[in-house]
Amino acid sequence: MTQTRRASAPLLWTAAALAAGLVALVVAGLLSGLGSADQISDPGPATRWGLPVARFLHHLAMATAVSAALLAAVAMPHRRGPRRRVRRRDAAEAAPEPEHPLYTQALRIAGAAAVVWTLAALAVLVLTYSAVAGQPITGDEGFTQGLISFIASIPTGQAWTAMVIISAVFATLIVAVRAPGGVFVLTLLGLTGIIPMALVGHSASGDDHTAAVNSLGLHLLGVIVWVGGLIVLALLFGEIRRRTPEEPHLVGTVLSRYSTLAGIAVVVVAGSGTVNAALRIEAWSQLVTTAYGTLILLKGFAIVALGLIGWMHRSLIIPQLTAEEPPPGRDRVIGLLRRLVLVEVAIMSAVVALSAILGRTSPPASEDLPPDATPARILTGYDLPPAPDLANYFVLWRPDWLWVTLCVFLAVWYVLAVARVRRRGIRWPIMRAVSWLFGLAGLFWVTSGGPAIYGMVLFSGHMVQHMTLTMVVPIFLVMGSPVTLALRALPVRTDASRGPREWILWLVHSLWSKIVTHPLVAAANFAGSILLFYFTPIFGLALEFHIGHELMMVHFLLTGYIFALVLIGDDPLPQRPAYPIRLLMLLATMAFHAFIAIALTNMEILIEASWFGNMGHDYGFTALEDQRSGAEMMWGLGEIPAMLMAVIAAIQWSRDDTREMRRTDREADRTGDAELQDYNEMFAQMAERDSRR
Fold first, then answer.
1. What CA–CA distance (Å, rounded) separates 467 from 478?
2. Half-sphere exposure of 361 (CA within 13 A, CB side)
3. Chain Cα centroid distance, residue 284
4. Are 613 and 623 contacting, i.e. CB atoms less than 8 angstroms apart?
5. What is the pLDDT of residues 270-325, one digit of tens each?
6. Which residue, among 508, 564, 555, 549, has the nearest Cα to 528 in the 3D structure?
């Protein structure tokens, strides 16, 4: 009886903490006027209150499911005992090692939360249609047909349908997948649920669409890792405590790894939330004079309080739980940890409730296009920039917060990693760091500067963005050797869990890496994607849809990075071609680029005429003339970096030959040139046999 009560205690305390969120939801709903039927077509109180409650449960269940899988993959040992290697030929005969109980429990939590996530997403879909249509939920034929039409033709309905599919697939697979690699892939699948959530609501229809959607996506990512991870720890607290006598450092280790993720998430949540609120709030006074502003302030105060509690974790509790010798009052420290975690869960559930109400509250800033919107504003969401010239490409900025965050994170990580390896006495060339930081500066410019602005209205601007992303930036990033630095700087896990270093090694040696880094595949992907992109409807989809535009930039950057890595990189690869093959690959791609550029220059048909032909600019040239200019830029911006890579490859070839000659000379000095003597003796024996004949 006592064991059952102890086992259910974490669940009961966690449920009590989550109930605080429902209380906060009711209070916030009353503040925002959710209880009043002031709509022209009121769907009824069941929809008015049911939709925020369903969204609240959906957000918590999604965060819990995805975070449980994430922590199982990166923070928890997946088997009992220390990490050990098994030879491939003995792997089939070796007995399977039992799963670690903490790993098993985390996957159970992920499976149960995923079921709730799926049901809540389905409820949000139905209730959202009821709210949009102004119809109470009924089972008649008209409501059903309207719901089907909502799913088939309305972006909001399509987004929540995608969420139902993602959650259902996640819930189905998480029950069957046990390997850490599969759990990690499922975590990435669950995180794709952020995309439909970011593409609907205020961010989808408000001003500065790119900044709003990307900042909201970052905000959701941080909330999922932060809130969901803490709920998972609260639910796992009983199992962690039971394992403490056998594994005294388990609680400190898991908490420390989560704290690292949560620390990054706090910064992302605070920064992205500030950006998103600034887009919705037009004046400081609206923070206290509008319901939307009041909810923003309450949410901000709660996040500050959570940050302070997190600081207490890192400065007071974690050092004691990760010490070599357990402190005398370990049980007291663990009890304090449990109380702090429950307080955090209560505050976080209240924050999620406020977010659910914010999604149903109209912001002060208008979300409608102005009546005199220009064609460019209608197509791109932004007014036309000034006439393009070299100066404007460097003085005009429109931050893309997704890429800004990525650039800042990679820059800070690289600097800290270099400092760590230097403290350990490992030499790291300063020019590698300079190359990496310069590449990140170029990535920031091409995604948030002039190329990003003109790339949406001019074909030539798009070509500057494309070729810089795929030909210029990757060269500097590859020369920074980030994988080699990570393998030297990141700690090695010894407790049967996989940290960043282990996942990097897994990725480098994976089948996917062997395929995409194969010389023929890398060259075909690099050159062939240009042909497919510009001569198929993919280009139009990338221009019209935000997610298509972001995927376009990711694809260009990755294909260019893999191609440069195969040709001139020093990071480890499954296979790397010989230098003559590399130069042939480079010459072939240069010729292909030139062929595509000449074909575009001679075209009399405007590519994506419905987009570039309808911008209505008065820059002094036609859209077709701009397309020819873009083709010329493609030729120039493609050939110059290719020649630079050829020079780098030639220098590396020469250095490798010099090192090989020095190694051969040292070997000859050490062995008395035994290899040459054996070689000469072989010829002497052959000559002697010939003379005897």
1. 16
2. 27
3. 32
4. yes
5. 888 888 888 777 777 777 777 777 778 888 888 888 888 777 767 777 777 666 66
6. 555
